[in-house]
Amino acid sequence: MAKEVQLDVLGMTCAACSRTVERNLSRAEGVNSAVVNIATEKASVIYDPALIDGAGLVHTVRDAGYDVRTVKQVLPIGGMTCAACVHHVERALSKVDGVLSAHANLATERATVEYVPSLVTIDTLRKAIEDAGYELLPLEEPLVAAGPDPDELKMQAARRRLWIAWAFTGPAMALMLAHMLFGLMWPSMAAIEITLSLLALPVLVWPGAPTFRSAFKSVTHGSANMDVLIAVGTAASWVSGPLSLFTPLSSYSAVAAMIMAIHLTGRYIEASAKGRASQAIRKLAQLGAKTARLLVDGEEYEVPIAQVRVGDVLVVRPGEKLPTDGVVIWGESSADESMATGESLPVAKRVGDPVIGGTVNQDGLLHIQATHVGADTFLAQVVRLVEEAQGSRVPIQAFADRVTAVFVPVILGLAGLTFVGWLVFGDQLRPVLVAAQRTLPWVDPTLTPATLAMVASIATLVIACPCALGLATPTALMVGSGMGAEHGILIRDGAAIQVMGQAKQVILDKTGTLTLGRPQVMDVMTLHDDADEVVRLAAAVERGSEHPLGRAVVSYAEQRVLAPIAAEGVMIERGLGIRGRVEGAEVLVGNANWLRDLGLDPSPLQERAAVLEAQAMTVIYVAAGGRVLGLLALADPLKPEARAVIAALKALGLQPTLLTGDNEQTATAIAQQAGIEHVLAGVLPAGKVAEVERLQAQGGAAIMVGDGINDAPALSAAAVGVAMGTGTDIAIEAADVTLVRNDLWALVDAVRLSRATLAKIKQNLFWAFFYNVVMLPLAVLGLMHPALAEIAMASSSITVVSNANLLRRGRIFQH
């Protein structure tokens, strides 16, 4: 049955664009008709879902060189307990028509879904999740400043189940040990077995009930998760107790309680460690202000932050949080922006300066006008970026994902084969137990074949652990991306962490990246007059100019506290200079050729000018009353930390390249000052992409660092694009990593953080695989007691999560 959908097409600028999109859609297999409207920028498509789905339509539009508006939604999922659950949730969501991608995260218990809004609704996604046997929890607001911490609630529930389980398991263990160590059989062995079974039963049906419910849901929905293994193992162990009263089978009912109690203990410790790993988002969310002081007609009204609208004027007193993003319209103060940028020093705020919601006003009364509210604020976007990064995939995880997709069914089959194998070949395998008994006291070769088969198969079930594989990457990613956000490093995609950690070279833009991005007067040279007089005259005429060099001259005069003087008849000569009358004399400020054309001689200053120009400075001459007075040398100076940062990047094994549209002389001078040997100058924006691709083809994956609109294509072309936070929104949107603070040391910190996080991921994956490779054969051979097997299984998950948290102890952020 055909379906109809409307797609919001992005990037169309003319009728030719709409025809291209329409033609490509119409030619796609399964599309019955396609009509594209350039005015509304929408494509109406009728298609056959059996031949092409919504994702296919989106890919068709993208292949034509355009894009489709999609929505990314973070969904809290209930019921995910292991890596197999992650696979089932992702598969269920990916099957929904209109879903482009779905990535579930066991550590955060969330799924990040990208979908076409005209095809998919939250209710559609909820049904897919529920049909898979899981639950869509209430959607969270972008910023939740109040209310109980969900992680804390989970830990409290896990702690409660733990104590209940051990309250019954403790007496059962004491009774079991009294029989094993002292031969206690009072009043009879049958009575002891019945007591052990009765003590174990509440552990399984009360605190263990969620595990059995999860297992039942998983099986009834055609899949199998980790809880299935625990449920089957504990149920089989408990059943052996009643059966031992009528058969030669040994009783392991107390072991069932031990397995469940140890399992729940591991869940609690794991939940606690995961809570620490995910605390970054919670901490960021709590930074937002709850109320704001609204200024209306001179009166102040305290209102909930949700009632603030763009354009509202807000009053912020010293010591208060800035309620939302805005701009200062009255007052002077300083703000503690450490939560956003990682910069510990207060930042001065004056009229016209932007402020960030959630930062703290230090010492002055401010009136600010709101520019962004709610989900559009800086803080909300940071939370969203961190959530997206934590829900993304790292390429190194791919193999583990393939393993976990089939892990539980394989283990169930292996446990069945183990049971049959011990029943059939028990006598041949018994010598292995006899040999191991000397070093492994829990091994008992005298047990009946049926008991040995049961012990080995139960140990195989409970020792297998896909959880460690599922937690290996996301927990390290959670900690790493959270630490980055706390230090002004916003990572958009988890894959960027791996690629940045493996990159071999770094390509840097010049203006605003290596340099401050604003010209300054660096030197003043005069022939006869006082230097201050030359600056004062130049500033008088430049006050009528909007050129960056002119503003730099005026700013320099203000810094030197020179009394301003008025200029009349100011005229700008495009590409040459500026002229005007000051105190009756004509003042000219411009280049040497212009002065020569006007009959003036700048040659006495040109030798010095040549030296300054060789140092990447721009020279402008000042003349008044028909004679040349002097010159001003201006430059966009190198950031103070640039040279040390380049040296640090080289020490990390990265080869730096300067890529700029400036002329070769200026670029070479800046590169020499920074310590960069490889320079590509005079490269137009379109050419930057080709240069990035060429450098990567020659030298491997590259990090591209920029801040301007013209850097956006190159940032996208690089293996990892890094945008300076002071740059344009377009550059930040194109980048994989954003450095919020305008400090190049943040780039070094980002590389170190990526490498440290990648190292933790590799360590976690190694231990997760190593554990299963070593432990499973021991369980199959009957060398693992079921209770010890459960301890080992729980320990593997705890080890992986705890190892990820050790990232916080590393000395990554040194500046």
Explain this structure:
The protein is of the alpha+beta class. It is 50% helix and 19% strand. The protein has 28 helices and 30 strands. The strands form seven sheets. A seven-stranded mixed beta sheet has the order 18-30-29-28-19-26-27, sandwiched between helices. Helix 7 crosses helix 8 and helix 9 packs parallel to helix 28. The longest helix has 39 residues. The two termini are 61 Å apart.
What structural keywords apply?
815 residues, alpha+beta, seven-stranded mixed beta sheet, six-stranded antiparallel beta sheet, 50% helix
Short description:
The protein is of the alpha+beta class and 815 residues long. It has a 7-stranded mixed beta sheet, sandwiched between helices. A 6-stranded antiparallel beta sheet has the order 20-25-24-23-22-21. It is elongated and about 120 Å long.
| Assembly type | single chain
| Strand percent estimate | 15-25%
Mean pLDDT: 84
Instruction: Tell me the helix content.
Output: 40-55%
Shape: elongated
Distance between the termini: 61 Å
Uncertain runs with pLDDT below 50, 5 residues or more?
Answer: 142-147
Please state the structural category. Answer: alpha+beta
Summarize the biggest pleated sheet. Answer: 7 strands, mixed
Radius of gyration equals: 34 Å
